[in-house]
Amino acid sequence: MSAHDYSTNEMMTVAAARRLGNGSVCFVGIGLPSKAANLARLTHAPEVVLIYESGPIGAKPSVLPLSIGDGELAETADTVVPTGEIFRYWLQGGRIDVGFLGAAQVDKYGNINTTVIGDYHQPKVRLPGAGGAPEIAGSAKEVLIILKQSHRTFVDKLAFITSVGFGEGGEHRKQLGLPGKGPVAIITDLCIMEPEAGTHEFVVTALHPGVTREQVIENTGWAIRFADEVATTEAPRVEELVALRALEARTAAAHGQAGGDE
Amino acid sequence: MAELLTLREAVERFIQNGDTVALEGFTHLIPTAAAHEIVRQNKQELTLVRMTPDLVYDLLIGAGCVKKLIFSWGGNPGVGSLHRLRDAVEKQWPQPLEIEEHSHADLANAYVAGASGLPFAVLRAYAGSDLPKVNPVIKSVTCPFTGEVLAAVPSVRPDVTVIHAQKADRKGNVLIQGILGVQKEAALAAKRCIVTVEEIVDDLNAPMNACVLPTWALTAVCLVPGGAHPSYAHGYYERDNRFYQAWDPIARDRAAFTSWIDTYIRGTADFAEFKQKLAGEAN
User: Structure pTM?
Assistant: First the structure.
């Protein structure tokens, strides 16, 4: 296996995992966030504390969970508490450093829709809904968002704001009185976006290797802007790919399907 | 004191048409057998409460038992959509379904408030979210001490809560282990509580501080081994991920779904027979 031989999905997961600091306390969403958070734990961040909304605190699963409450999360956790306690004491109580979220759609201010496409009462597509995300987005000290980029997922105007980022931009989030500082990065299969100072509009700050500005523009539903200095993401290192592929192989062997693909 | 009953008798006696019913269990210990029995007895006009509707409510919605759904995340975990839920919301099949939608933190707090005998729950939530615009029962309250505006939501107080647990003793005391979700709160918030269990033992041997629901706080305890399938019962069996995947094509199509419940649920006398039939198919 060569370090140059990797998929765009692997680049996305690796880039997202790198954002999670060792020792941070992370409230993990199922799917892509869970994959990236566990990759972080298995590589540079062995002391990261993973909290799942079903109740496990300090989960260290050997395979990716298919559901948010898989048994291995409980077995490997430091403690398992009731779901109400997770939200009341640990999240609302201000103990979460990073909320790690996926999304069906985001807009330029990092607001998330996981509820509905079309009119709420006459939906074109009914999505699963809020889950834990609205309060994670509100109360975690900071938020990371991971999702694949296309003009259908990065939209100019959300039909529904399930979980707030910077609202209407500018100082709107501050005015809402939310305790956490909001989304600090959106990591996609093409690039990394971060909020611009002042406007809080997400702009591209890093392109993954080989990705062009045109590709990003084509796959964004608003007039995406680029930071003054756009970095190139470091390609996945061999040890990152080895750890990710081993995690996926263990998961496929255990479940008969790969976790974290949604 | 809880009565030790068959599941059929417990559902007959304690779940009425028009009741508000919560079948709880967060991914773990989902009371599937009870949902099947509700379908067999063709209970109608139910208001169902559950954080994650999962397959159990997809089934009940598709079977036409449900008038209203109160929930916070309605997907098939690890697979995709709940097609019966979506068909009811998007196309009103088999009948219109009223939905009342919350977040997890909200519903978890609402169960805590219900168990606490309070009329509402207070939490820091929803600022900037559109959910309060489509759910009129999400309101706000101003803290009398700090002036902070917080979310206020009505407590959940079901007529009946049904949960699944690992063990009961012969008096009907129940031990739950592993991921607890909101099961204890849902049990204590309800007027009546039915618990299905994997086994009935002489002594629970519960460790100190374990989650034990005392018999006098419950209504009925029913022995239903395997009753949480396709979810799991920690220490007894694993989650049947293949069934969650197999559910997708069954639930995607109205005719396939109806034929499935006619064969496997309406066409079986109880959960034991259902399990036999399902096992026969697999061989």
Answer: 0.96
Strand partners, B98: B68
Is B93 buried (19+), middle (13-18) or exposed (0-12) by CB count in 10 A?
middle
Nearest CA in chain A to B83: A126
% of chain A beyond a pLDDT of 70: 96
C-alpha atoms less than 13 angstroms from C-alpha of A82 in its C-beta half-sphere:
18
Which domains are assigned to chain B?
A: 3-102+157-282 (3.40.1080.10), 124-154 (no CATH)
Which chain A residues contact residue B27 at CB under 8 A?
54, 67-70
Residues B124-167 pLDDT 10s? 999 999 999 999 999 999 999 999 999 999 999 999 999 999 99
Kindly report, residue by residue over B224-260, the tens digit of the pLDDT: 999 999 999 999 999 999 999 999 999 999 999 999 9
Q: Is B275 on the interface with A (CB under 8 A)?
A: no
Assigned token pair, B262: 């006619």
φ, ψ for residue B110, nearest 5 deg: -65, -35
pLDDT bin (cut points 50, 70, 90) of residue B209 is: very high
Residues on chain A touching B164 (C-beta within 8 angstroms):
none
Q: Do A135 and B125 touch (CB under 8 A)?
A: yes
> B residues 31-50 near A, CB within 8 Å?
none
Q: Nearest residue on chain B to A52, judged by CA atoms?
A: B179
Q: What is the DSSP string of B99-168?
A: EEE--HHHHHHHHHHHHTT-SEEEES--TT-SHHHH-TT-EEEE-TTT--EEEEEEPP--SEEEEEEEEE
The DSSP output letter for A89 is I
A53 is catalytic: yes
CA distance A158 to B90: 19
pLDDT at B143: 98
**ipTM associated with this complex:** 0.95
CB B211 within 8 A of CB B177: yes
- Confidence at A261, pLDDT banded by 50, 70, 90: very low
Residue B205's alpha-carbon distances to A137, B167, B177, in angstroms, are 41, 10, 12
Domain A8-250 top-level CATH class = alpha beta
Question: For all residues of chain A together, what is the average pLDDT?
Answer: 95
Section B35-54 average pLDDT: 98
Q: Is B148 exposed, middle or buried (0-12, 13-18, 19+ CB in 10 A)?
A: exposed
pLDDT at A205 over 70: yes
Cβ within 8 Å of A, B 89-128: 89-90, 101-105, 108-109, 111-112, 123-128
